[in-house]
Amino acid sequence: MAANGNGEVAVNGNGAAAARKQKGTLPSITTSDKHHHEVCHDMSAPTVKAQTIDELHSLQKKKSAPNTPIKGIQGTFAALPEEERQKQQLQSISASLASLTRGSGPKVVKGDPANKSQTNQKVHQHHVAAPTISASDSSLKFTHVLYNLSPAELYEQAIHYEKGSFITSTGALATLSGAKTGRAPRDKRVVKDDVTGKELWWGKGSPNIEMDEQTFLVNRERAVDYLNSLDKVFVNDQFLNWDPENRIKVRIVSARAYHSLFMHNMCIRPTPEELEEFGTPDFTIYNAGQFPCNRYTHYMTSSTSIDLNLARSEMVILGTQYAGEMKKGLFSVMHYLMPKRRILSLHSGCNMGKDGDVALFFGLSGTGKTTLSTDPNRYLIGDDEHCWTETGVSNIEGGCYAKCIDLSREKEPDIWNAIKFGTVLENVVFEEHTREVDYADKSVTENTRASYPIEYIPNAKIPCVGPHPKNVILLACDAFGVLPPVSKLNLAQTMYHFISGYTALVAGTEEGVKEPRATFSACFGAAFIMMHPTKYAAMLAEKMLKHGATGWLVNTGWSGGSYGSGSRIKLAYTRKIIDAIHSGSLLKAEYRKTEVFGLEIPTEVEGVPSEILDPVNTWPNKLGYNDTLMKLAGLFKNNFETFTDHKIGKDNELTEEILAAGPNF
Ligand SMILES: Nc1ncnc2c1ncn2[C@@H]1O[C@H](COP(=O)(O)OP(=O)(O)O)[C@@H](O)[C@H]1O
Ligand SMILES: C=C(OP(=O)(O)O)C(=O)O
Ligand SMILES: [Ca+2]
Ligand SMILES: [Mn+2]
User: Which residue stretches does the UniProt record annotate as biased composition, category Low complexity (predicted)?
Assistant: First the structure.
């Protein structure tokens, strides 16, 4: 449409270009004062309600509606006027960031220092510390606090300021965690004092490597000074545990938008009202992961240190930016706090059927907790960390952290679809132009991860709580290929395997693991438990007995030979096995007892080839199978030796039964 019926040339669209092509002469523009004409004039649009560009931009963002006042709740801040509440909140943040040697906290300001014109700034600026004569430079500057930003704001922060942050084709935020792409359990330290010295599990097999209070303070000061030296820090105030009676308030202070978004996804997100009465946190994380610890500091054996101080309710992270360190650090804290309240903390996934039947999925990293608890036919309660109380189960977290190496839409549709706007994609590789992620690419690490809020899974059960579990599924990824795909366990066997916590560590999640290696990790999470494993085991036995839960051992690892010659059991088969456990059909199956491990294996499972149910059938070399079986049995026996002189629960009889429930040879 180069010209309309009146012979006028439309300036917009193709007309001008087409006309220009005609020997370079510019088209003549006829102006008309007839208003209702087919030609679109600029004047016909309503004018913008701004006089300047700055004013125009200021119109773009509207201030959030004021938070509704809390009615009927006598919270810390409930009765305070807005101004006073803001002041107390900033004082609380300043107190968190206080250097312990200088006494007072930094002057904190809310908002991005880049937004000088920010209207909030006047209102939210409070000089908390009175200037002192011995002032250092750090006491002269302001610490800008980006407080509980939204995912959209965090995206902008990440993309603008953090190298390696990109938006993928499905809208997720791709980022790099730096040199560390997995947890560093050897760099974990726990303050040993008079109380924790008695309460916690120390020594051989324990994840708690001691440090003293003084050294903790040195690292804390290092982290706080680092954070205060930055232009701005991110502060997240959130909750742990969906059980309202046992909810823990956590504050995470971090230097990266990526870390703030990760914790936004992983912890429970407070409502504006809940945030108003947040008050003082129960626990604080100082994540100064970009800054190393000082190896001249006592107890430091590398540049990474993850330090837990239960007396101070604080954790300090130096020298690692792997985000999983924060969520698993808080999990350790829950493994201390909850059992003190007679609540069992569980390293397990959890889901629920339409009829309210709950299943727990215990397992070490990479065994299938996230994959198998995320089941389109069931309600997801959580993928990794739970509590079992007198009334049922509750998720500790508000999000999931899925492995995404080799992720496929067909095999794991719910996880695939959760990777969208708001999701953090750690260490994945994507196509430069289309930003399509190649989930098969291990160039950065094998431990690629996606962190998303739990409601990104369509059938998430919100609130994430459920009744007492009916099935307790122990997942082991057996790289030797000798454990059956599924076995039914009696209570003593369940306890034996729970305490043993056998699996093969697969590459990536922990540093230095390049190929599957047999490990025993008590309670399927020795890296996170704080007290002796028998304490958790006794609680589990008591609860399973009381509520009549059935134990199962599911091998999600190798079949047809060990790692290298056999192959991993097809996910589709494992899903069929899990379906049969949930439906109750497997409980009624016919069973046969295996030699050596004495495991009850079914002769048939719907949808699974019967010959794979006894692993011996899948091995081409029967002698090789027997040798490997004996080798694994020996490893179990050796490992259990540390537990032989520990009583499990009040009952000696159970202890004896558990000891007898291991391999017999
Ligand atoms: N038979 C199987 N059962 C469970 N997971 C399997 C199986 N075969 C392959 N996998 C893969 O193993 C990984 C299990 O990881 P994930 O569920 O994240 O473990 P966890 O949550 O216990 O750390 C996923 O990448 C999944 O696709
Ligand atoms: C985040 C982790 O948990 P998992 O692998 O069990 O999902 C981890 O171990 O670092
Ligand atoms: Ca996968
Ligand atoms: Mn997981």
Answer: 1-19
Instruction: Give φ, ψ of 399 to 5 degrees.
Output: -155, 180
Say if residue 15's pLDDT is above 50: no
Provide DSSP, 475-507. Answer: EE--TTS-S-SEEEE-HHHHHHHHHH-EEEEPT
Buried b (16+ CB within 10 A) or exposed e, 433-470: eeeebebeebeebbbbbbbbbbebbeebbeebbbebbb
Q: Catalytic: which of 259, 347, 378, 582?
A: 347
Please tell me the distance between residue 331's alpha carbon and the centre of ligand 2 in angstroms: 11
Residue 73 pLDDT: 47
Of 256, 327, 369, 568, the active-site residue reads 369
Pairing of strands 591-593, 600-602: antiparallel
- Choose among 388, 330, 337, 336: nearest CA to 359: 388
Q: Which residue has 């006598």 as its token pair?
A: 74
* Known catalytic residue at 183: yes
Query: Is 58 noted as a catalytic residue in this protein?
Result: no
Q: CA 377, CA 288: separation in Å to the nearest integer? A: 41
Q: What's the burial of 105, exposed, middle or buried (CB within 10 Å: 0-12/13-18/19+)? A: buried
Question: What value of ipTM does the predicted structure carry?
Answer: 0.96
* Whether residue 328 lies in the annotated active site: yes
* 139, 304, 370, 374: the active-site residue: 370
Determine the Cα–Cα distance for residues 543 and 541; give it in Å rounded to an integer.
Answer: 5
Identify whether 434 is a catalytic site residue: no
Contact assessment for residue 78 and residue 86, using Cβ atoms and an 8 Å cutoff: no
pLDDT score for 60: 86
Q: Is 3 helix (H, G, I), strand (E, B) or coil?
A: strand
384 is a catalytic site residue = yes
- The reply to whether ligand 2 has any atom less than 6 angstroms from the CB of 349 is no
**What is the 252 CA–ligand 3 centroid distance (Å)?**
30
Q: Which residues have beta carbons under 5 A from ligand 4 (an ion)?
A: 369-370, 384
**What contacts 24+ positions apart, CB below 8 Å, involve 351-356?**
351/375, 351/378, 351/379, 351/380, 351/381, 351/461, 352/378, 352/379, 352/381, 352/461, 352/466, 352/467, 353/377, 353/378, 353/379, 353/582, 354/378, 356/466, 356/467
Sequence-separated (6 or more) residues with CB below 8 Å from residue 197: none
The predicted-structure confidence for 236-291, as pLDDT tens digits, reads as follows 999 999 999 999 999 999 999 999 999 999 999 999 999 999 999 999 999 999 99
Q: How many angstroms separate the alpha carbon of residue 405 from the centre of ligand 3?
A: 5
Q: How far is CA 268 from the centre of its chain?
A: 11
